[in-house]
Amino acid sequence: VRMLEIGTGTGCVAACVAAALRGQRRGGDPSEPGPAPIDVRVVATALVPAALELARANLEAHRVADAVERRAGDLYAPLRPQERESFHVLASNPPYVRDDEWGEMAPNVRDHEPRSALAGGPAGMDVLAPLVARAPEWLAPGGTLLCEIGHRQRDAALAAARSNPGLREPEVRKDFEGYWRLLVARRAG
What we know:
Elements: E1 2-6, H1 12-22, E2 41-46, H2 49-61, E3 68-72, E4 87-92, H3 107-110, H4 128-138, E5 139-148, H5 154-162, E6 167-174, E7 180-187
Parallel strand pairs: 1-2, 1-4, 2-3, 4-5
Antiparallel strand pairs: 5-7, 6-7
C-alpha cells in the first residue's frame, strides 16, 4: 500500500497507518493472531521543517520510521513526477479553520498549535480546495482521498470534490461526535 499524507504534522496518522498495516497491534487479546502484515510505504509531507523533525521522533518511537519518508514542502511540491498516479490513499488534515471561527476554538488547541497548521482562510478552503483539485494527479485509479474538514465546510468540500472530473463518489462522513468531518472520494478510472 502506498499512502501520501499531506501536512503530516507530528506524524501520528502516518505512524498509526504504518503500524496497523504492518500488523503491530495495540490492545486486544495478545493470544489472538493479528492480521497478516501488509507492505506499506508512506510519503509524509509538511510545510514546516520542525514538524518533520517531530514526526521523525514519533515515527522512530513507534518503530515505523523505515516505512515513512518525510519531505518538506507545500502541498504536492515535494512529490516527484514519477510518483503521479501511484498512491492508493491520500490522507490529509489540512488547515481548515475559517477566519470567523478562530475565536471559537478551544484554548487548548488555539494556544498550543501553530496558526499555520489550523487557519484555512475566510472560508477555510485556502488549502483544502487546491488539495482536492490536484488529488487525482497523484492517486492511483480507484485510490481514495480522505480529508478532515471543518463541520461547517460540508457543502463547500463536497462541491470541490463533485466539480472535479477526476474524482467520483464524494461524500462527507460524520465523526464520533456527529459532526460532518471527513471528506471521502475515489479517483475515477
